[in-house]
Amino acid sequence: MDALVEFKTEDGALVVVEGADEGPGARMVSRGDGPAQAARTFESALDGVRAAAESALRVFRDGALRPDAVELEFGVKLSAEAGAVIAKGAAEGHLVVKLSWSPGPARPDAAPTARS
């Protein structure tokens, strides 16, 4: 199990998460047996993920596709020093994108359907 990391929210609440591996040569330090104290607030740790989501939404909403809905799924790991990190999955990073379109009104040039 990865070490626990304690984040404070901007309103002072504590959020304890299972931290991401820090990489070779890095290790989290905690006071006593408790979780490591994150260097950033929970909200600031997620700023990079929010920016990535905003950027991805711009890419998928602009252009010819114009979906009615865009759903993004990021795998996110939290690190005491780095904050939020988009988690590595089977490929290099974890990002699932779902685009959907609602059925629109019939095109004027479409042939009418027979009803019984």
Describe the protein in words:
This protein is α+β, with helices and mostly antiparallel strands and 116 residues long. The protein contains two helices and seven strands, in the order E-E-E-H-H-E-E-E-E. The strands form three sheets. The protein has a three-stranded mixed β-sheet with strand order 2-1-3, with no helix packed on it. Strands 4-7 form a two-stranded antiparallel ribbon. It has a two-stranded antiparallel ribbon with strand order 5-6. It starts with a strand and ends in a 16-residue tail after the last strand.
How are the SSEs ordered, and which strands pair?
Layout: E1 4-8, E2 14-18, E3 36-37, H1 42-45, H2 47-61, E4 69-74, E5 76-79, E6 83-86, E7 95-100
Parallel strand pairs: 1-3
Antiparallel strand pairs: 1-2, 4-7, 5-6
